Each structure stands twice: as structure tokens, then as C-alpha cells.
Amino acid sequence: MRITSLSLNDFRNHAHLNLDFTPGTTTIIGRNGLGKTNIVEAVNYLATLGSHRVSQDIPMIRSGLTQANIAAQISKHDRSASIDITINSVGSNQVLLNGSQLTRPRDLLGLVHTIIFAPEDLELVKGDPSSRRKYVDDFSVQLTPRFAGVKQEFERVLKQRNSLLKSNGRRGLSVEAKNTLETWNELYVSAAADVVEQRLAALQLLTELITEHGQMLSGNTEPLRVDYSSTWLLPESNSREEIVKNLTDELARRLNDEVERAMTLVGPHRDDLKVTLSDMPAKGYASHGQSWSIALAMRLATFDVLRQHDDDPILILDDVFAELDEKRRTRLAGAVGGVEQTLITAAVQADVPGDLDAAVLLLENVSHGA
């Protein structure tokens, strides 16, 4: 699949910007501050309804305004579709698909697939667990769009359970509160099991590919592995029945701790992905170059799975090549050859390997509106 045109209005620094894209590779060249990352952020938003840079939508609205707009024409399986997204600072966002408004914006998920690699992806190795949870959850949504609703339901139940624990204070649970908590526990365990099941299924598709890409990018045989990590889920507990039992048992064991701290301490919101290189924790062990290879391997694995599942996602490499040594640049360039559409951003064209046959878009030559 590919994007054929993109229009941005009051999105980040772009007051009015209209771009056309051709198949294959397009390199967007521009000095810092011109908004090249903002362009690929908008393309990625079409697929995820979220930013890879910030957790909220408001920063994407141009300063001092209340709305931003992303409009695009998409080509997929020899068919085209128009998408128009209005991001509002107050109230719900609006999504039009082929001119018709979607009742739920998340119904757009699954139409557009993107894989983006950006400097922020070093957090997959060096950052806290939330970055790695987001990696597997975002991939799960692209692979199975209904997972967005599953995750939303889990977050709703988690919020309600936390509210109950907080309202009780630290004085111990009354009989009424215990009964209410038991009811919420059943809902919580069911919603949490849905999330964990999907994460485990996603990782099963990714694990071998991550290892293969890690070895390709690093040029050595250091084994790279990514596994699910949880304080409550026993090893090899993959079935729903085992997940439910493990979580139910751990909730019972940690009840007093949760009452004392007035929060839910057990569940998928506190889990992690264990990333190891040569059987050592990548965080703290991997060098800077190795960390880049690991993060790239994780993203390329998701690209491969989505490609097998449907068609080529739009591959976005945001200011990546400047951070890589010559060997890793060459290996990455070889790995992304033949993709239906790749968007690359760079401050200078010399950062991009010459063997990538790319159309070049110079932002200095593009009008951004007033």
C-alpha cells in the first residue's frame, strides 16, 4: 500500500502543506525545524490515530489554534480511499472515510498500515517498560484492529478497580467493599487475559524474525531474543485458563499490598518485554550501535509480519541513517529494498545511502503556508 497525496492544515508547524508521493522511496530532506518529522508523524497517524512522539493529540495542533487537519489519498490493492481527520483540542476528533463520517474514529484502524522507525525507538532498549508495552500493543492493533477496543476495555476496568481501592483508603476492606472488589476482579481478570493473550500471540509471530533481523543488522551471531516478562505469569503459561488462574492467584496474594497502596499492582499494565543479547539484558549491556540494531530489528520484524498478513505497510525511517555507522546503513538499505513505499527523512542527503533509488523532496522548496 502507499500514500499518494497528503495535505496538512495547522498540523504542528505546517499551516498549509500539500504533497504528492510516488511509489518506491521518497527522501524528505530539510534542516532541523522545517517539519520533516511532522510530515511522517501525520502519515503514521493515519494508521494508528496516535503519535509516535507524544501521548496526547493537542501538541499536534499548531500553536494558538484549536484544530488540525490531516487529509490523504491512499492506494491499496489497486483501490483508492480518501481519509480526512480533524484533530480537536476540545471534544472528539472526527474521521471521514471517502467522505462519510465514521461514528467511531477507531473504525479507521486496519485500513492503513505503517511501520515507523525513529530516534525515539532507542527507548525500546534503553527506556522503561511502557515503551515496550506500547510496541507490542501498537503492533497488535495494526494486526488485529479489534484489539484497540480490547485495550480500551481493560483500561476502563483498571480505572474502576483503582478507584475502588483508592476510595477505600488504607483502613482495610469492609464486607461491602470486599464483595464489590470480587465483582471487579472477575471483570479485571477477564479483560487482562484478553490483553495478555493478544500480546503473547503477537510475540509468537515476532520472536524469530527479531532474532534474524538482529543478526543481519549487526553482522554477527549474537543471539537476540524478546520474550514476555511478568511477575505473575508463570513460564509456559500460554493458555487463557492458565493466564486467568495465574492472575487470580496473584491478586489474592497481593490483596493486602494493593489495599495498602490503593492501586492495582498486578496485571498487563505492569508487564514488560525482556530483551536479551547473548543472554544478557540488552538494557545496560548493549552498546549504542547494538541498541540501534535491536530497535531496528524489532521494527523490521513487525513490517515482515504485516507484509505477510496483508500487503507492504508504508515504511517510515525518520532521521535514522544519521545515527548508524556505515555498515549498519548499508545493511538497513539492503533490507528495505523493494518495499512498495518507503518515506525517509534526513537533514542532509549525504546521510542516506546512495544505493536507495529515491525521489527527493527538498522542504526548503516547499511552501508551508502562512
What would you note in describing this structure?
The protein contains 10 helices and 14 strands. It has helices at 36-48, 123-126, 129-143, 147-168, 175-218, 240-253, 255-261, 282-285, 288-309, 326-335, and strands at residues 2-11, 14-20, 24-29, 67-76, 79-88, 94-97, 100-101, 114-117, 224-229, 272-277, 280-281, 314-318, 341-346, 358-362. It has a domain at 1-113 and 312-370: P-loop containing nucleotide triphosphate hydrolases (Rossmann fold, 3-Layer(aba) Sandwich), CATH 3.40.50. It is globular and about 70 Å long. The protein has 370 residues and is of the alpha/beta class. Helix 3 packs across helix 5. The longest helix is centred in the middle third of the chain and has 44 residues, at 175-218.
**Structural class label:** alpha/beta
Q: What percent of the residues sit in helical stretches (DSSP H or I)?
A: 40-55%
Give the spatial strand order of the biggest sheet.
2-1-4-5-6-7
Under CATH, the topology of the domain at 1-113 and 312-370 can be stated as: Rossmann fold
Please provide a brief summary of the model.
The protein is an alpha/beta fold and 370 residues long.
Question: Which key phrases capture this entry?
Answer:
370 residues, alpha/beta, Rossmann fold, six-stranded antiparallel sheet, five-stranded parallel sheet, 14 strands, 42% helix, 22% strand, globular
